[in-house]
Amino acid sequence: MNEVLRIEGLKMYFGGLKAIDGLDISLYREETLGVIGPNGAGKTTLFNVICGVLKPTEGKIFLNGEEVQGKSSFEMARKGVARTFQISKPLRDISILDNVVASLGINEYTGFKSLFKKSHSKETVDKAMMILRRTGLEDFKDKKAGEVSLGYLRRLEIARALAINPLLIMLDEPCAGLSNFAINEVIELIMQLKEEGKTIVLIEHNLPISMKVCDRIVVLNYGQKIAEGTPKEIQSNQEVIEAYLGEDDDFA
Ligand SMILES: Nc1ncnc2c1ncn2[C@@H]1O[C@H](COP(=O)(O)OP(=O)(O)O)[C@@H](O)[C@H]1O
Ligand SMILES: [Mg+2]
């Protein structure tokens, strides 16, 4: 099996708070790995460490066999690590199309210089349009990102992730706060990415969604892995059920 990402003995401490406390995780090509766990379990912190926003306190991260822990988020994006945010962070004052063009720029220009170019090559715009079609955003291309609803922003984030031609896509609660209709649209998009053979890590607090979408699930609690397995194995794991007890989400 082709290991895209390997995490070994990862720790991320904030002072005395052990947000990640000795994690080992592997992710294989074309796999969709779910990361679940109660609020505060360390899921977002894990993403921040993998994508270079945070430097880990200890441990190693290998991307396609190369040691990458501690590299900047820009370097990690260039290496093909794409992530979306629990709280959407598009460039709000520019159009949906330009948001995707700017992300394409990570491969084609340095930094965000692409944003300040007056015109882009037809090839770049065509590429951006193709991504907007894939993510169902074509009709909204001229709207400013700050003007569209959260469901579209989440899809825009996925579009921007696709624009860097990612080795792996990390989605942080892409369905949080959405209507059932918008949730189904995001799930459909993720299923489509899976069919295209993308390698995905999905943080999802809503268990039925991760059960449906993921091939394998890792369960975190207090920064540690308390279980790992197929959705079916996870669903019947007593420790997992206990970690979730007292939360008001359904465990279906
Ligand atoms: N930058 C930070 N500084 C201090 N504490 C943090 C920081 N980021 C996260 N934490 C803490 O780390 C723990 C894990 O948070 P987080 O990774 O956001 O959990 P989750 O995404 O699973 O809900 C929480 O206790 C949170 O308060
Ligand atoms: Mg989180």
Q: State the helicity in percent bands.
A: 25-40%
Number of helices: 9
Looking at CATH, the homologous superfamily of the largest domain is P-loop containing nucleotide triphosphate hydrolases
The stretches of 5 or more residues where confidence is low (pLDDT under 50) are none
The assigned CATH architecture of the largest domain is 3-Layer(aba) Sandwich
Main beta sheet: strand number and arrangement? 6 strands, mixed
Count all strands and give the number. 10
Give a list of the ligands.
adenosine-5'-diphosphate, magnesium ion
Q: What is the number of independent domains?
A: 2
Short description:
The chain is α/β, with parallel strands linked by helices and 252 residues long. The chain has helices at residues 43-50, 73-78, 96-108, 122-134, 150-163, 180-195, 207-213, 231-235, 238-244, and strands at residues 3-14, 17-28, 32-36, 58-63, 66-67, 81-83, 168-172, 200-203, 216-221, 224-229. It is globular.
Description of the molecule:
The structure is a single chain. By secondary structure, the chain is α/β, with parallel strands linked by helices. It has 2 domains: 1-80 and 166-252, Rossmann fold, CATH 3.40.50.300; 90-165, no CATH class. It is built from 9 helices and 10 strands. The protein has helices spanning 43-50, 73-78, 96-108, 122-134, 150-163, 180-195, 207-213, 231-235, 238-244; strands at residues 3-14, 17-28, 32-36, 58-63, 66-67, 81-83, 168-172, 200-203, 216-221, 224-229. The chain has a 6-stranded mixed sheet, with helices on both faces. A 4-stranded antiparallel sheet has the order 2-1-4-5, covered by helices on one side. Helix 6 links the parallel strand 7 (168-172) and strand 8. The longest helix has 16 residues, at 180-195. The chain is globular, with a radius of gyration of 18 Å. The model has no long low-confidence stretch (mean pLDDT 89). The structure holds adenosine-5'-diphosphate (ADP) and magnesium ion (MG). The site of adenosine-5'-diphosphate has 11 residues, from strand 2 and helix 1.
